[in-house]
Amino acid sequence: MSTRVTKPSNQSAGVTKPANQRTGVTKPANQIAGVPKPANQNAGKMKTAIQKNAYAPVKIDPDSDYMTPGAFELEQLFRTVGGAEYTHVNEVWPRVFIGDEKTALERPQLEAMGMTHILNVAEGKWNNVATGARFYRGMNVRYYGIEAEDMPTFNLAEFFYPAADFMHQALNHPESRLLVHCVMGRSRSATLVLAYLMIHERLSVVDAITHVRHRRCVLPNRGFIKQLRALDITLQQERHSQRIRATDTQQKSVRDRGRERGRRMI
């Protein structure tokens, strides 16, 4: 059971097409519903956020003390917070593990750990982890592969929502255990786990980094850090708008009840 996203060989460096338009995208009939989503559904918001000054803090909610830090500040956070030593694999969230190539290639260890889902963020043969769904045949593992390059110019943000949804749906089953890996388990895989925590667990980028860094020595490249910052801005905007709409709806409901009581008194 697998989902694979590949990168066309003639694609320009750092420029990616939406996943639903790329050659080599397969969707098995028994794939979890909703994975992957069209990757361009949030492209406009993400592009706007990325175009902002990446090194200046951004405040979205005037009633909140929180500000999305600049990219340099986030990079310093990665380098200073937490004290976890580098190991091959760590549990960074309940039933979510970040690991490296060695972990992904050791089938007996994966079976002993009870892994049911594997997200390979370094699929491919060149300088990547060439496993694929066939490698795990007979293990009752659901596999999702992404050909991502650990380069600042690579648009990993295109896969934030599809990967986060794969992880979220996997964790809906209480017996599931998920390995997210790349080659070293420090940059590509860590970035997608952080995006998942921000999207589905509603953590800020600061809280997500702090949480994971206390459990694993991760350090995404600068381009990925900027993309996580842009995601944080987008999510803060969306959630601020949701709070405003919820407040307006609540106030309208109070006014309507007041009018109804007034009519009854007349």
Search tags:
266 residues, alpha/beta, Protein-Tyrosine Phosphatase, Chain A, 41% helix, MAP kinase phosphatase activity, cytoplasm
Structure description:
Residues 158-216 form the Tyrosine specific protein phosphatases domain. Keywords: Cytoplasm, Hydrolase, Nucleus, Protein phosphatase. This is Dual specificity phosphatase 29. The protein is built from eight helices and six strands; from the N terminus they run βααββααββαβααα. With 266 residues, the chain is of the alpha/beta class. The protein has a domain at 87-148 and 156-229: Protein tyrosine phosphatase superfamily (Protein-Tyrosine Phosphatase, Chain A, Alpha-Beta Complex), CATH 3.90.190. The protein has a six-stranded mixed beta sheet with strand order 1-5-4-6-3-2. Strand 2 (89-93) and strand 3 form a beta hairpin. Helix 1 crosses helix 8 and helix 5 packs across helix 6. The radius of gyration is 21 Å and the shape is globular. Residues 8-38 have low confidence and may be disordered.
Topology:
Elements: E1 2-5, H1 43-51, H2 71-80, E2 89-93, E3 96-99, H3 101-105, H4 107-113, E4 117-120, E5 142-146, H5 160-171, E6 178-181, H6 188-199, H7 205-213, H8 222-265
Parallel strand pairs: 1-5, 3-6, 4-5, 4-6
Antiparallel strand pairs: 2-3
Helix pairs in contact: 1-8, 5-6, 6-7, 6-8
Domain Tyrosine-protein phosphatase: 88-237
Main location: cytoplasm
Region (Disordered): 1-43, 242-266
